[in-house]
Structure prediction request, 143 residues.
Amino acid sequence: MQTSVHWLENVAFEANSESGHRVVMDGSAAYGGKNLGPRPMELILMGLGGCASFDIVTILQKSRQDVIDVVCQLKAERADAVPAVFTKIHLHFVVTGRDVKEKQVAKAVELSAEKYCSASKMLSAGGVEISHDFEIIEAEAEA
Prediction:
């Protein structure tokens, strides 16, 4: 896997992925940023949410759960000192579907956290305390 990051101006950068996608990142106004894109640390958090959500959706689909939507809400705490690394991250999954089994969602969350989510494993190996929970919302039956 490869990427490149190109300086645009002030504290704004454009990252180009090997798969052909571009993301603009920018620092906060305190450092001369113009809010042209997410902060680099926000992208790490977004990546974790995407990685874990990918796992949850694919695991639930394989277990034949009728899932309509999955939202991962993340909250993170950072160290007060430099480097301001993440110290705690909580992932809350909101799974919407028809007759989705709580046991299956719990298993999907556990498998993602303990086995499949590379981002979660990497961050926790670096000392980040990562926690998870979920809720299930019953969707209306199809007409």
